[in-house]
């Protein structure tokens, strides 16, 4: 009986902590974005379920003096050999064999976060673009570096892990050739939009796609195209994220 009461108390405590974190996040979102932005995000999230996907394209702040928070004790961020990620394929980490083979073939780089030897976050960087779906891909020219497939384990969010990955990404490409980093975020993903202004101050415009009867039709606004970024249909099969 005592053990049951203790387990119940632990569950209640975890639920209360999770609820508190959720309310704190909602409060910050409202403070930073306002109710109109929150409502807009909800509407766009619902439209995405019906096949209309809209993304905000952002140009990174690649100045060497940009400051990032330090990681909590026990967390590390480092370059990860893509072959090193095979043990996490097939688990709940968003990685597939096809994706890793494609990233290796393109010569992409990865920065990963670990906690006690366990993978808890990662992000990829490429100079040649990468697939978005089995039908679409991001195409960039030689002025850009594309940052893609950023992921943080739900149990380890709000730990500045993505900021640490962004800091180390600069070591892969010192940008001496004048390239700028670029990526995109779904317009209904307020949590990502909340953290992105620190490292993506230049919002270029929008891209996205409409899915009709199983076919995905991409579009990209003029300004991102002028900067060398576009979402396009894939002309061949291969690696799928």
- How many whole angstroms does the radius of gyration measure? 19 Å
| Unreliable segments of 5+ consecutive residues | none
State the share of residues found in helices, binned by percent: 25-40%
Distance N to C terminus: 48 Å
CATH architecture of the largest domain: 3-Layer(aba) Sandwich
Largest sheet: 8 strands, mixed
Proportion in β-strands: 25-35%
**Major sheet strand order:** 2-3-4-7-8-1-9-10
Q: Any idea of the CATH class of the largest domain?
A: Alpha Beta
Task: Supply the number of helical segments.
Answer: 5
Silhouette = globular
Number of domains: 2
Number of strands: 11
The CATH topology annotation of the largest domain reads as: Aminopeptidase
Give me the CATH superfamily of the largest domain.
Gcn5-related N-acetyltransferase (GNAT)
């Amino acid at each position: 009986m005592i053990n049951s009461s203790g387990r119940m108390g632990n569950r209640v405590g975890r639920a209360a902590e999770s609820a508190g974190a959720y309310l704190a996040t909602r409060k910050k979102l409202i403070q930073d974005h306002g109710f109109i932005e929150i409502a807009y995000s909800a509407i766009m999230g619902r439209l995405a379920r019906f096949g209309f996907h809209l993304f905000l394209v952002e140009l990174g702040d690649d100045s060497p003096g940009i400051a990032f928070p330090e990681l909590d004790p026990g967390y590390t961020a480092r370059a990860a050999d893509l072959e090193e990620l095979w043990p996490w394929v097939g688990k709940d980490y968003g990685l597939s064999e096809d994706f890793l083979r494609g990233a290796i073939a393109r010569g992409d780089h990865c920065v990963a976060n670990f906690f006690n030897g366990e993978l808890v976050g990662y992000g990829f960087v490429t100079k040649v673009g990468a697939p978005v779906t089995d039908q679409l891909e991001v195409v960039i020219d030689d002025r850009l570096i594309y940052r893609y497939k950023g992921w943080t384990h739900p149990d380890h969010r709000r730990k500045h892990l993505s900021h640490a990955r962004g800091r180390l990404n600069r070591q892969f490409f010192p940008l001496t050739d004048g390239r700028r980093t670029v990526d995109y975020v779904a317009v209904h993903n307020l949590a990502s939009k909340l953290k992105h202004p620190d490292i993506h101050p230049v919002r270029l415009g929008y891209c996205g796609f409409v899915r009709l009867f199983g076919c995905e039709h991409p579009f990209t606004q003029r300004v991102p195209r002028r900067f060398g970024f576009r979402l396009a249909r894939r002309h061949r099969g291969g690696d799928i994220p």
